[in-house]
């Protein structure tokens, strides 16, 4: 089809401990990010998944967090030939996974947003 494909992957891993031997609060879990996108002329389509492990060592006085897997979809259309302005549609957390980020002070009160859709125009310089 003549599409330009882009594939990406990254792994986030943070480790730490307090001098006193305890666990550091608010450390993120091991997280794998996988991404693929294709561009045909002015149309760009993409998918991204985030796979996060549980955080079972949250630090003294904090609750552990479960792992999660989210999927995000995106589509955009270039409004001009150079592609610096785009009309976009993003669908985030399409599986409506309950996500509680171990890095958030509000994780035990408020989860991250569930399924949501964003529509807009993006300009880049």
Relevant terms:
mainly beta; six-stranded antiparallel beta sheet; single chain; 6 strands; 125 residues
The averaged pLDDT comes out at 93
Number of strands: 6
Q: Largest sheet, order of strands side by side? A: 1-2-3-4-5-6
**Overall form:** elongated
The separation of the N and C termini measures 29 Å
Helix content: under 10%
Radius of gyration: 18 Å
Low-confidence stretches: none
The H-and-E topology, N to C, reads as: EEEEEE
Share of β-strand residues = 35-45%
What structural class do you assign from the helix and strand content?
Answer: mainly beta
Number of helices: 0
The main β sheet shows up as: 6 strands, antiparallel
Question: Topology, please?
Answer:
Blueprint: E1 4-12, E2 31-40, E3 43-52, E4 68-78, E5 85-92, E6 116-123
Antiparallel strand pairs: 1-2, 2-3, 3-4, 4-5, 5-6
What does this entry look like structurally?
With 125 residues, the protein is mainly beta. The chain contains no helices and six strands. Strands 1-2-3-4-5-6 form a six-stranded antiparallel sheet, with no helix packed on it. The radius of gyration is 18 Å and the shape is elongated. The two termini are 29 Å apart.
